């Protein structure tokens, strides 16, 4: 991933979330069927921290895995990125769909269609950002836009320049 000076790394974005939202993200993470690689990385980090074998961590109840993940002193970037993605897929689909609708991008309930074309005109992207900024909490919008920017910095490069990507009170 290309680092952008104005968009914090996923692990820093995660730290900026409220404790309740981080817990929701961790719950979504452990239930995310697409996150097997990142879950394995999280299991290894938890096992190392607790001095457990990985297979002992795998069989822990979800509530304990959530807590151990949240208690890690440093969450690997790939795991943090998947936590953000899982959070959005599980809890922010309405906002994701509203953004893509405003942008005119084909999607399935907020998930960009495989053959979708993302317009690159900064005016169109900014108009779509303003549309969701008027309808959703600023913190949710900033987190979503920052997550998009990290997922695909080339496609969403213009987002880093927009004030809506700054999480309120977290600059």
Task: Put the structure in a nutshell.
The chain has 171 residues and is mostly helical. 60% of the residues lie in helices and 2% in strands.
Characterize the structure shown.
By secondary structure, the protein is mainly alpha-helical. The chain folds into two domains: 10-83, no CATH class; 92-165, no CATH class. It has nine helices and two strands. It has helices at 10-16, 19-31, 36-50, 54-58, 62-71, 77-91, 93-103, 122-133, 138-151, and strands spanning 107-108, 111-112. The model is unreliable at 1-5 (pLDDT under 50).
Report the count of strand segments.
2
- What's the pLDDT, averaged over the residues? 92
Count the helices. How many? 9
Helical amount among residues, as a percent range?
Answer: 55-70%
pLDDT < 50 stretches: 1-5
- The proportion of residues in beta strands is under 5%
Order of helices and strands: HHHHHHHEEHH
Rg (CA only): 17 Å
Shape: elongated
Trace the largest sheet across and list its strands: 1-2
- The termini sit apart by 22 Å
Largest sheet features = 2 strands, antiparallel
Q: List the domain count as a whole number.
A: 2
Q: What is the multimeric organization of the chains shown?
A: single chain
Secondary structure category: mainly alpha
